[in-house]
Structure formats: structure tokens, C-alpha cells
Write a structure and sequence with these properties.
about 20% strand, 8-stranded mixed β-sheet, two-stranded antiparallel ribbon, Rossmann fold, disordered C terminus
Length: about 210
Amino acid sequence: MTAQARKQQLRQSIIAGRAALAEEIHLRLSREITARLLELPPYREACTVLGYMHFGAEFVSEPWLQQVLRDGKRLLLPKVNIASRELDVYHVEDVAAQLAPGAYGIREPRPECCARLERLDEIDFILLPGVAFGRDGARLGYGGGFYDKLLARFDTETSGPRRPSLAAAAFAMQLAEDIPQEATDRRVEWLVTENEIIHCAAHDARSAK
């Protein structure tokens, strides 16, 4: 089986399992993840945070986004650029008023009332969406490559060694082993589930020894 076929098989399995969660369990697990996410050291130290609006049976991110604003941090959210097939990033001050359904039905910033971010090196912390994650930081997305392209831009549009911390929030049932990885795939440094905070960078270093 090819790497792409293995990825698609894993996507289908995890998405189906996630969708089968009862609503009350889905919301409870999301609250538990949010509580852990807010205690994450790189989040607490960050001034500018890039998050995302959930859709479907993903971790419910909106309460965390609201807390980002209450914590006095600068909140950024992505918007799909259909023409370029990439993500544009906007500064959002009011999640309820400044978002509207966009590509794929996901709520996105409204450009007429949000300022677009021009310098990626202003971002301190990124919460990445995904379907499956490994304890070593491996991430399986939805297959569109939008976030891989965004992260690749840090290598060409920023100067110096400064890079944002990369984290993900997921239900424990989204953890998987031996996720196929390609050259364009980026690993997360931190993974937060309802049960634990996993420092993937440390885990990966131990695995390599």
C-alpha cells in the first residue's frame, strides 16, 4: 500500500470514529482539552496566536479562541485564498462579529473588517488542525496541503532563527502510530489531548537515540 493510500485509510478511520462521539462527550472532551491547552507553556508565553475555527466533529476551538482574546493576546485566524490555494492570515478582535462562512463552510475572517497580517514572523504560537497525530509530532491533515504551504512560508518570508511554537489539540482517539510522513510534512512540538500534554519534540528526540 502506498503512503497516500495509507494516509487516506487512516483519515477515513479517524474521521468516522470522531464523528461517532456522542455530542455530550464531544463537548466534555473539548472542554478538558481547552483547559490543558491554556496551561501550555508556549501558549502562556505567546503574544500573538494563530488558531482556527473548528468544523464538523473536530475539537471545539471557539471557547479557546475567546479565551485567547480575554488573555489579552493578539488573535489571528486563517482564510482560504481560493485563487492561490493558500491561507491568508487575519487579525480578529471579535469572533462572533468578524467571521462568516467561507470555503468548505468553515467560519473565516471577513476581510472588510479584519486586518490582514503581512509579517509571519510576528506569530509566536500556532494551533494546527488535523485528523491524526503521533506522539513523535507526526501530523495527518485533510489532504489539502494548506497548512504545509503556510508553514513553508516561514522558511522564505522570515529572517533569523525565530519560529513559532507548533501545537495541536486532539481527542485521544486521534492518536496513531506510524503515520506516513513526506518531505513537505511538518511535525508539531506539542500535542494536547483530554488526558495529557505530550511534548513531541522531546519524545522524538528520545526515539532517535
